Amino acid sequence: MGIKSYMNMSRTEIDAAYNNTDAVEDFTEIMHGFNERSIEIYKKYDWLRDLHYGDKKRERFDFLSCGDSSAPTYIFFHGGYWSNCNKEDFAFIAEGPVNNNMNVILAEYTLAPEATMTEIVEETGRLIEHIASDKSNLGLSESPLYLAGHSAGGHLVSLYRSHEKISKVHMISALVDLHPISFTWLQKNLKLSLDEMKLYSPLFNIKAGAPTLISVGAKELRELIRHSTDYAIECENDCETVGLIHLPHATHFSILNDLADQNGLQLKALVNM
Predict the structure, then answer these.
(1) How distant, in Å, are the alpha carbons of 8, 63, 119, 195, 241 from that of 209?
(2) Cα-based angle 17, 269, 69 (whole degrees, multiple of 5)
């Protein structure tokens, strides 16, 4: 029996196909663990917190230097279906990049429904421009910029693969087609327009861009695996430099444990691209 296309799914089926929290048994415990580890990582290292890149309350970022101005800077956008979570929930992931001689930036952005998809995408670009123009003040004058994001954050960074200031991109469990999202419970907050679905679905807007690592958990929901796999195939068809990892045994959330591991598969692959 073949995999059912989202276009043939009932509302109940498509909601389940994108419900990452229900797909794991211990989501509350997982997030509690992430929060506890993030609190510890803020204590462990000397961070610059809540630096602003725009006028809105959530247009801010945290910065962690690895002590090398020429080292790459790993700019991470968190997930939460564009409407949940905060950068502080995922600070623990910095342990992996900083121990691979990377500076780390944790990006925040305005969430739906306060912001539209268009506004969220614009904020992403605004952060990139701010970091690129403010590198010397952060002690990053010679630092290549790596753009990374998980889930909804992976969607946002994929839209800026072609930005001239970006050297590499890391898409983690990224969402690259907004059309099926509009049929789920998420549409109530996102209010995606037809134009937004067309403009901001990376799967259908592939351009020449930076070398890109695409990673997804082998135990994630089928729709999430489809997004990553289809995007990698389309990039390869367009002769783009991409790598695809189906991380063994990883769910939508445990894939971040590998990112936080300095010896994790994802960082090794990214470094070697």
Answers:
(1) 33, 25, 22, 23, 8
(2) 115
Residue with tokens 């045994």: 249
What's the pLDDT tens digit per position in 233-272?
999 999 999 999 999 999 999 999 999 999 999 999 999 9
Give the model's pLDDT for residue 6.
79
- Cα–Cα–Cα angle for 135, 136, 138, rounded to 5 degrees: 65
pTM: 0.96
Taking the mean position of all CA atoms in its chain, how far away is CA 114? 20
d(C-alpha 202, C-alpha 196), whole Å: 11
CATH superfamily of 45-271: Alpha/Beta hydrolase fold, catalytic domain (3.40.50.1820)
Query: Which of these, 177, 22, 140, 159, lies nearest to 77 by C-alpha position?
Result: 159
- Strand (E) or helix (H) holding 89: none
Largest interatomic CA distance in the chain:
57
Q: What is the pLDDT of residues 74-128, one digit of tens each?
A: 999 999 999 999 999 999 999 999 999 999 999 999 999 999 999 999 999 999 9
C-alpha distance across the termini of the chain, in Å: 37
Task: Tell me phi and psi for residue 65, to 5 degrees.
Answer: -90, 140
Percent over 70 (pLDDT), the chain = 99
- Pairwise CA distance, residues 113 & 95, whole Å: 32
Question: d(Cα 7, Cα 4) in Å, to the nearest integer?
Answer: 8
